[in-house]
Amino acid sequence: MSTPPAIELTGLAKRFGAVVAVDGLHLRAEPGEVVALLGPNGAGKTTTLDLLLGLARPDRGTVRVFGRPPADAVAAGDVAAVLQTGGLLKDLTVEETVRYVGSLYGRHSRSAIAEVMERADLTGIARRRVGRCSGGQQQRLRFALAVLPDPQLLVLDEPTAGMDVSGRRDFWSAIRRDGAGGRTVLFSTHQLEEADAYADRVVLMRRGRVVADGEASEIRRLALGRLVRVTWPNATADLLAELQRLPGVRSVEARGVTVWIRTEDSDAAARHLLHHTPARDLEVTSTSMEEAFLALTSDLDEQEAGR
Ligand SMILES: Nc1ncnc2c1ncn2[C@@H]1O[C@H](COP(=O)(O)OP(=O)(O)OP(=O)(O)O)[C@@H](O)[C@H]1O
C-alpha cells in the first residue's frame, strides 16, 4: 500500500456565527514537506490548524493525518504542535522543563534530553529560568517540548510572532535542522519573506480559501504579475471563463461592475477585453512585490475603496 499523505484536508468548512473562517479548503502535504500557510490576519490560518489538530470540529469536510482522524494521530504521538500561546512554568529552568516533559513521554535518558536541547539550540541556556528567557528562547523551548515524542508531523501557529530578526533566524535554523530529518512541518505566517525563506511550498490563504499553492518561487512569480482592472457591468460567467483561458491569466474576479484580471500577459488580456467585450476604463498596474502580495491576500473590496 502507498504511504498516505501526512496531511489531507478535503472541502473543509468552519464558521463562527456569521463569520466564515474556513470556506471549502483543500490541502494536502506529503511526508517530509515543509509547508507555509501564508495569509493576512483573519484569513483562517489558526482555524485551519485547529481543525487539523482536532481542537475544533469542521462543519463540513474531512481531516486526515497520515490517513487517520486527527484525534487518533495525536493519541498515537504522530503529531505535535507549537501554538501561539502555551503554558510554560516560569520558575523551572529550561533543562528542568525539558526533563519534566521528557519524563511524561518516557524519554528520561541524559542523551535523549541533551539531543533535543542541542537541536533546539537550548544547551547554552540550560540553567536559565524560563521566566527570564526571551520570547524567542521560550518558543525554542516550546519547539523542543513538541519534538520530544518524535512526532512525524509538527504544526506551528505563527511561531515567530513578536520575535526580533535574530530571534526569528535562530528559531528557524533550529526548525530547518530538525526538518532535515524528514519530519513534515506545517507553519502559519503572515510574512511572505518568512514563507519564502523557510518553506519548500507555500499555500496562500485568503478569506478561508486557498488562493495559490506552489513552490515559494512560483508564488513570487504569481505575485509579480500584472493587474488589469476594467469596468464591465453584467459580465456573464461564460465571458469571464473565456478570459480565464487567455494566455498568462492567473485569476479573474468580478465584484459589482468591476472585473480584476491577474495575468502575466496584460497585452493579451487588454486586446481581448477591448475588442471582444463591452468592458471599458481599462487600467493596467504593475505592482511591487509587497503590493502584489497584499493584492493577492487582501479583500478586493478594500482595494477598490483605496482607489
Ligand atoms: N472562536 C471564534 N469565535 C468567533 N470568531 C472566530 C473564532 N475564531 C476565529 N474567528 C474568526 O474567524 C476568522 C478567521 O480567524 P483565524 O484566527 O483562523 O485567522 P488567522 O488567519 O489565523 O488570523 P491571525 O493571523 O490573526 O491569527 C476571523 O474573522 C476570526 O475573527
UniProtKB/TrEMBL annotation:
It comes from the Bacteria. InterPro entries: AAA+_ATPase, ABC_transporter-like_ATP-bd, ABC_transporter-like_CS, P-loop_NTPase. Keywords: ATP-binding, Nucleotide-binding, Transport. Gene3D superfamilies: P-loop containing nucleotide triphosphate hydrolases. One of its GO terms (molecular function) is ATP binding. Residues 7-232 form the ABC transporter domain. PROSITE patterns: ABC_TRANSPORTER_1, ABC_TRANSPORTER_2. The keyword 4Fe-4S does not apply. SUPFAM superfamilies: P-loop containing nucleoside triphosphate hydrolases. Belongs to the ABC transporter superfamily. This is ABC transporter ATP-binding protein. It comes from Micromonospora mangrovi.
